[in-house]
Amino acid sequence: MLHEFLSEFQTPLQNPVLQFSLILFIILFAPILLNKLRIPHLIGLIIAGALIGPFGFEFMLRDESIKLYGTVGLLYIMFLAGLEIDLVDFRKNSSKSLVFGIFTFSIPMILAFLAGYYLLFPFIEHKLATSILFASMLASHTLITYPIVSKFGVTRNRAVGITAGGTIITDTLALLILAVIVASTKGELDTGFWTQLTISLIIFAAIIIFLFPIVARWFFKKYNDKILQYIFVLAMVFLGAFLAEVAGIEGIIGAFLTGLSLNKLIPRTSSLMNRVEFVGNALFIPIFLIGVGMLIDYRAFLSDVDTIIAGAVMTVVAVSAKFIAAWITQKTFRMTVDERRLIWGLSNSQAAATLAAVMVGYNIILNPEAVAAGAEPDRLLSEAILNGSILMILISCTISSFVTQRGARNIALLNATSEDERNAEKVLMPISANTNIPELINLFNSFRGKNKKTDLYVMHIHGGNSLANEKRGNQLLETAAIDASGADNEIHKILLTSNNKVDAISNFIRENRINNMIMAIDNETDTDAFCGPTIDAVLTRNPNCSIVLFKSVNRLITLKRSIVVVPRYAENEIGFAAWIAKLWDFSKNTGTKTIIYCHAETMAYLQKVQTIMPIDVEFMMFDDFADYLVLAREIKNDDFLVFVMSHKDKESYNPTMAKVPQSLRSYFPQNSAMLIFPTQATDVAENTGDFQNAVINDSKFDDVTKSITGIFRN
Predict the structure, then answer these.
(1) Model-level pTM?
(2) Tens of pLDDT, residues 566-594
(3) For every residue of 352-402, which 3-state class applies, written as one string?
(4) What is the DSSP string of 486-498?
(5) Helix, strand or coil, per DSSP, at residue 677
């Protein structure tokens, strides 16, 4: 028995439970230990992989399970890069991504080709093909430090979008060169090869870009189970990667395009996004990094001079060429030093595409007949290049980690705002047994900036003191807490006993200084009331609280457009800035296209906001709020209707507003809708900084850029 027990600990470990336990402890303790030394934990995971791997203490072999999880982790990195990109900024900076992609491909390609042709392979027979393949290795890069950017919450910085777009360009070109070199060595480089490659790439891109969103939208609309939705997303990632390989390129391109295609369907503040990020960052990506470390053979660096020379040349050329590309990009587009650090840090690390190219080149044997007769194989890329590439991967990833962490930290500190009590948002959410709690929580998440401090109070009011009512109320609050926790929200659960809901809500708002409230339209039977007697009374009693009334029909995750109707003179009211912030956050978080119908004067102010904080928006002239029903022919079932309202006796109030709730029930029963009642409190409006004055005062238009930062804390 003792012998059998001790055999479980013989190296390399064979017990899968013990193997996985070792990996988890490495993932657990690497960040804890290295954070004290201010070393990025990515480096710790790679070093740990080298120590436990076949060339270290040989605790574990780089077997098929490690390769499988590593592949998942690599695809996850590329998928998250596409999923978290701000598509508006991505489209806005597409030309910059193209320019950077050309720089970060051509500069390393030229320098590496010269280094290979004249320094590393001057005397070999096939030095031209070898030098081209060698150069393509160094031209590619992997977004291995993307988790650092995500950790600091700066994934939507323009430098990240530019780098991600450039990554697809340079990796695609590098991998296409790899395919061409392989075909040339096999004698298959003919017209048929080019025709097949072109057609397959077009079909592959069309399926992912156009078909994937349609299928995903149908699935999310039909199935609301959270686990099923996550499994579906994971399946789409691997399907996209597989289609890329079928088309003749690496799967990382397919994973990135899948992220882009699902970008609008997975809001960044949603519980689904939280699960996608959590599983990847907790498990798959760390195992990928450990697997990279297992490739490091330190003995080859000490015993083989050719390996040391190759590794040194590759490292110097790759690191310097990627820096030059980042520096030229920074100077070309007048970016900051920290944005250059992000670009260089993200694009400097070599891993997946480099490994793919070097392994393919190493496995191409140019003298198969001689090898069959017992001669040494003549490989397109030698063993020294293979081992030297591992050294380059280790050094480039180390440099990238430090550079990315510094740039991301500085940008995060620059964007940070104080989270004191004065700037904190307090949101009240009354719920009842008829409330669609998950969608109400989703709406709250869609208004929430990722780094904005928000206190959410979920309230249930029941009449009488019966234990049954109290138990039912606690169950509703617990359901809300579970739904909120899916997106890392903590709520304050409020259970009140009162026969007067209006008094209970109004008193709580006043006593706790609530400045925002989200309520579900409950379709009360009193048709003479605006939204029902309770909601009408709450609106009347609390004009100083920004109130959003929500009618839930379709899931927010499946919506395509937001149709916003704005009354004339809305810009003259105190709460103007606050509802703009909500609308802009909603558009960014949900990825929906926003179409705003408003008067020309209001449009002028909103267009100035758009120039500073761009979203996917279109402005339409609309002079008379009373004619909102003429928009019915433009409305589709998957549109989200938004009406900016006003309180009686306020400048933008229109008597037609009283008919909006009934119109929603009569003319738009298939549409989800939202009614926004802006706050009338001066002190609440002041919490938006100077944004209000900067927008509505012509003499302060030059201050918009500075003041808008205070309200959009993203």
Answers:
(1) 0.74
(2) 998 888 888 888 888 888 888 888 888 89
(3) HHHHHHHHHHHHCECCHHHHHCCCCCCECCCHHHHHHHHHHHHHHHHHHHH
(4) TTT--EEEEEEE-
(5) strand
